[in-house]
Design a protein that fits this description.
This protein has about 450 residues and is mainly beta. It has 4 helices and 17 strands. The protein is globular and about 70 Å long.
């Protein structure tokens, strides 16, 4: 049975937000009106604080200055070519080697905290410089985080852009993509997340999260909603007012993800399970250059169930050696989990199923040296990609990566890191496939402050 209530504009997410707000504990005394306190005219657009007398606060700037020296033995970033080789995604068809000095992963943030001993507010705004594409000398800031967390007792509420709360464990390698497209599911995404600490070791969360706006409108996989008034017509194409002004917001994914996570922590050990789900009515792009992506005819109006079920684990093996990893089964996961364009078959519009996983060993050899070794893989079902595209470097049948990393502090919080990654990628091309391998070497210097 199709979830009818979700198909009607996604109103369920509003109910979820209301539930999250109502779930935060409020004492009876706080719920009473204070007749001795004069009302305050609140201004939604004002920057000046209003309740500065409630608790003590502080503001702390922080950040990282980083330079990455990167060499690629071939095209190791075909899924985001406009970023040159600023990070690795897969092994592409192009055989040219390349190098770059990349300062984009420098970060600046401001954290504000306020507490009265019972209530705590923490607000964060953070930027890096990956917003613009490969435009030398014109690297603009990009918003990474912008959220506030309210905590009272065992419950906390996070609203704003934060790291993806489900499948929240991350590998420790230097590369900016942190195994994106290579087994790790991550993103920084607008959300409303309620966490509850059941006891010292057990925490649960519920979340409603949504990418700010789908990026299909500016790429080759652009989607357009079917016009319900005229069979076969498309809403929002061209300048015809009768087709509405929907072109600028043609991403059909209207509902957010609904997710949850249950995590057990004790003495450095982590065991967690996560799940997330979203239903939407798809509308794969039709028209211009469609033939390059398959048969030239896209099937629109598919019922898409997008979901993941996964687990995370951290196991201390000795005092200096620990194991960490994730494993998940997914369907139709896209940009919300750093898998741009890997969610649907580009010809049939059907969802793509995949197993994703990564594993890492972390060895703290001494205070001076830490060594990492790991592997990640993203393995979609071949039958889901059959006939999807005739272009190489577009959708992969499998994508594997191994890495070795060494980190050494030069002095205080100034570090140097060395990293080698090897990538194996098999691309879906028509009814066949193409296989490529490549290496990426990274020397990174960074200062945390």
């Amino acid at each position: 049975m199709k979830p009818y209530h979700l198909r009607r504009g996604g109103s369920l997410w509003l109910l979820a937000v209301m539930f999250v707000m109502a779930a935060l504990p409020v004492s009876a005394e706080e719920g009473k009106a204070d007749g001795a306190t004069a009302p305050i005219n609140l201004c939604a657009g004002c920057l000046a604080p209003v309740f500065t007398q409630e608790g003590k606060g502080n503001i702390t700037p922080y950040g990282r200055v980083e330079l990455d020296l990167i060499y690629s033995s071939r095209n190791t970033n075909p899924l985001d070519p406009a970023q040159f080789n600023g990070y690795a995604t897969s092994a592409g068809k192009n055989t040219n080697s390349s190098s770059t000095f990349n300062p984009r992963y420098s970060v600046f943030g401001i954290r504000a905290e306020r507490t009265d001993g019972k209530n705590t507010l923490t607000g964060v705004v953070e930027i890096d410089f990956y917003g613009e594409k490969d435009i030398a000398g014109s690297v603009l800031p990009r918003l990474r985080l912008a959220n506030v967390r309210y905590t009272r007792g065992a419950a906390s509420l996070t609203v704003g852009q934060d790291w993806t709360p489900v499948m929240g464990l991350l590998p420790d390698l230097i590369d900016f993509s942190i195994l994106g497209y290579g087994g790790n599911l991550w993103q920084r995404i607008p959300q409303v997340t309620l966490r509850y600490q059941f006891n010292e070791n057990l925490e649960g969360l519920l979340t409603v999260m949504r990418f700010e706006r789908g990026l299909y409108a500016i790429g080759d996989q652009r989607q357009v909603r079917p016009d319900y008034r005229t069979p076969g017509a498309q809403v929002g194409q061209g300048d015809n007012p009768a087709q509405s002004s929907n072109d600028a917001f043609s991403d059909p994914v209207q509902n957010p993800y609904y997710g949850g996570r249950l995590a057990y922590n004790k003495d450095g050990m982590l065991l967690a399970v996560s799940a997330a789900y979203r239903y939407y009515r798809s509308a794969p792009r039709q028209g211009t250059n469609a033939a390059a992506f398959g048969s030239g005819t896209f099937t629109s109006g598919k019922d898409i169930n997008s979901y993941l079920i996964g687990t995370e684990v951290v196991l201390p093996l000795t005092k200096t050696l620990k194991f960490a990893g994730e494993l998940a089964y997914t369907q139709a996961l896209g940009q919300e989990f750093f898998r741009f364009g890997q969610d649907l078959n580009l010809t049939t519009g059907k969802p793509v199923r995949s197993w994703v996983s990564w594993a890492q060993l972390n060895w703290a050899a001494s205070r001076e040296y830490t060594f990492l070794g790991g592997v990640g893989w993203d393995n979609p079902y071949d039958q889901d990609l059959r006939g999807s595209t005739n272009n190489p470097d577009t959708q992969y049948k499998n994508n594997y990566r191994t890495y070795l990393t060494a980190i050494h502090p030069i002095w205080s919080d100034f570090y140097i890191g060395l990293e080698w990654q090897h990538l194996w990628t098999t691309w879906a091309v028509g009814t066949g496939s193409e296989h490529y391998q490549g290496d990426m070497y990274n020397v990174a210097f960074w200062y945390n402050f």
